[in-house]
Design brief:
The chain contains eleven helices and 14 strands. By secondary structure, the protein is an alpha/beta fold. The longest helix is centred in the middle third of the chain and has 14 residues. Keywords: Chemotaxis, Cytoplasm, Hydrolase, Phosphoprotein. Pfam families: CheB_methylest, Response_reg.
Length: 349
């Protein structure tokens, strides 16, 4: 198999040299060009036809986000964003992933060595082989509260690579009185702060990072804050009333923190009150927990292979028997809401 052709775009010569040295050490990758500005990057894309690009978030003249927006409109290709963890950098990185960037990696920070770039080569290879997102249809008006709908279950959603765009599309289908919803998305802690803030401005429900002890309520979406914590459930086992969030500090579960498996497994005691959805992402986090939830009476939904950026987590969940039904991303939100209206049979096996 021929090495994948990589274009590095960054205005820092030091950062370009660092990224090149890491990628060229991997026989799967061939760095064919570098660029320091959006104009140079555009010319390099046309000249070298790379398979994948690393793109600096903050660049002079035309920003990385504006270049990405134009790139995805005229010449879609896999992109990994490279970001500093400034407040602005995190906001823009999340916007980039919503526009179609496959993933985002933090630039190394002083004193951390190359820890942040330890998986850079794997990330670039995965991005090059990932399916590009389907263009979004025209943004629909925010759904209005529908008092005639009776949501009887809570909603749990897990995602990873490609999940930023997927979660945005799903929540844009949710009305302001949506079912109580918890989300675990694999991202660094600062990106999750920006992600929650962005969603709160885009969708009808209230969206924020989960806090320990917070009560699950209709119309409220809580996202795992990451860092040292997993997002779990605690409370009575005889129904959704009185359920609260528990931020559990602990080691990674299924290779991740926050972990989808940790969240799903914590909900097994009240599985009859749960609808669980698993989205695009690499690996198998969430698969074991979804299988346990379904066995205990939860309704479960997996994102279809055709609409996934990376058909990893849903595939493994399906192989373990955890997926009750499949749905394309465009209808995933509607299907979750429909399942949340299904009757709860407490004590069912």
């Amino acid at each position: 198999m021929k090495p994948l052709r990589v274009l590095i775009v960054d205005d820092s010569a030091t950062m370009r040299r660092l990224i090149r040295s890491i990628l060229e050490a991997d026989s799967r990758l061939d760095v064919v060009a570098e660029a320091t500005t959006a104009r140079e990057a555009r010319d390099a894309v046309n000249m070298y036809r790379p398979d994948v690009m690393t793109l600096d978030v903050e660049m002079p003249n035309m920003s990385g986000i504006e270049f990405l927006r134009r790139l995805m409109r005229h010449r879609p290709m896999p992109v990994v964003m490279v970001s500093t963890l400034t407040h602005h950098g995190s906001d823009v990185a999340v916007e980039a992933m919503a526009l179609g960037a496959v993933d985002c990696v933090e630039k190394p920070r002083f004193g951390d060595g190359l820890k942040n770039f330890s998986k850079l080569s794997d990330m670039v290879v995965l991005a090059a082989r990932a399916r590009l997102p389907t263009p979004r249809s025209a943004l629909l008006p925010r759904p209005q509260p529908d008092r005639e709908r009776n949501f009887q279950r809570i909603c749990l959603i897990g995602g990873s690579t490609g999940g930023v765009d997927a979660i945005e599309r799903i929540l844009q289908r949710f009305p302001a009185n949506c079912p109580p919803t918890l989300i675990t998305q694999h991202m660094p802690e600062p990106f999750l702060v920006s992600f929650a803030a962005r969603l709160d401005t885009l969708v009808a429900p209230r969206v924020g990072l989960a806090s320990d002890g917070a009560k699950l309520e209709p119309g409220k979406v809580m996202i795992a804050p990451g860092g040292a914590s997993h997002l779990n459930l605690c409370g009575p086992v005889d129904g959704p009333v009185g359920l609260r969030v528990r931020l559990h500090e602990g080691s990674p579960v299924s290779g991740h923190r926050p972990s989808v498996d940790s969240m799903f497994l914590s909900a097994v005691p009240i599985a009859q009150c749960v609808v669980a959805g698993i989205l695009t992402g690499m690996g198998g986090d969430g698969a074991e927990g979804m299988a346990a939830l379904r066995s205990a009476g939860a309704r479960t939904l997996g994102q279809s292979e055709e609409s996934c950026i990376v058909f990893g987590m849903p595939r493994v969940a399906g192989e373990l028997g955890g997926v009750e039904q499949w749905a394309d991303l465009d209808v995933f939100g509607d299907e979750i809401l429909r399942l949340c209206e299904s009757p709860v049979h407490v004590g069912a096996s």
